[in-house]
Amino acid sequence: MGTTSEALIVCEHCDTVHQRLALSRGEVARCARCGKVLQRHYRLSTNAMLALIVTALIVFVQANMWPIVMLGLSGQHNSATLWGVIIAMWREDAGIVSVLVAATLFFLPLLKMLQLGWLLWFARQGRRAPGFVPMMVGLHYLNPWTMSEVFVLGALVAIVKAHAYFDVTPEPGIYAYAALTVLITVFAGIDVRQLWRTPGVAA
Amino acid sequence: MNALPRAAELGLIGCHVCGLVCRDAHAAAGAAQVVACPRCGVALHRRKPASYSRTWALLIAAFIMYIPANVVPIMRTASLNDVDDNTIISGVVELWKNGSPDLAIIVFAASIVVPMLKFLALGTLLVSSRRGSNWARQQRAGLYRLVELVGYWSMLDVFVVSLLTALVRFSVLSRVEPLPGVIYFGLTVVLTMLASMSFDPRLIWDGRDTDD
Questions:
Q1: What interface predicted TM-score (ipTM) does this complex get?
Q2: Minimal CA–CA distance to A15: which of B179, B200, B3, B33?
Q3: What is the annotated signal peptide range for this record (chain A) (predicted)?
């Protein structure tokens, strides 16, 4: 072996060295020492992943533009969008929370989808996207900080809490968020790192 | 040689960002030298730098934030004839009584069980790994994976308070305001996430008996 090896995998959680395997459909390779997943077989082609990201982006725009829930009390009605939530928290002197919500539910998910879309768009043509290396590194770091799926559960809890005192009407935004959660779950299983080794994309 | 060789024993390093397996050039370059991954350019480390002290510092900071997060109310509900301040636990109790016990259990798990699990699990991992203990290594590795998996779900209550604040704005009739507890709680979640990221699970296996 030279200074690097594509034939080996080092387990991130216990440092054990394994041979990279050719997996067939549905197979998962786990570390023999600690049990961490080392490799998965991916059914989705680059095209399918790109289609998924574009769909997720469209749904994301809708989830952010449309109101999420409407409350009614004695003839008055109030509804809120995600940005309404961010602004409300800012005005109520909870600036840290407002920034956290904006980052984990808006900016970082958007950045993640745009970067993935960009990388996959070029990968589909068998090319390496401009800015490939910094984007791949960036994706690695921002990955744990996107929380749209937690927000959906939070909206459900808020609806049930409000239901005791108000007339609650779900608005289209909540359905867009639910759809987004399904899409996120599908591509959460995708290890972006495979792009480092995709033919034509790898340097 | 061991049946399951470890990268450090073979003079290899797996890049923690892109996963590329590289020959450890630290010895040739001098130990103090920064050696970058040839593929992604991020500095290579045999272990995460200063993992014990960073993880302890973040975990203790998180615990300090966790006390006011539970004691100080997170949300005020004001209506015409009454003002009601809720802490995390009283919010769970109210949800259990007035809404849905199922959701109350989920909120209890996300807001109380998950943060406690993170403090206990990371504390246990830090102490046992520092002592080079070979006790229940498989289970400790599994515990770390669990902490990584469920960690961010604690943000649930922060999102609930934020959404209610934006929704319940009926001037004098009814209003919801966030109270400082929710800020402490948000900071607790972020700090525990940073703590679990700075812990290096390879330390679990670095003890005196590397063979199992």
A1: 0.91
A2: B200
A3: none
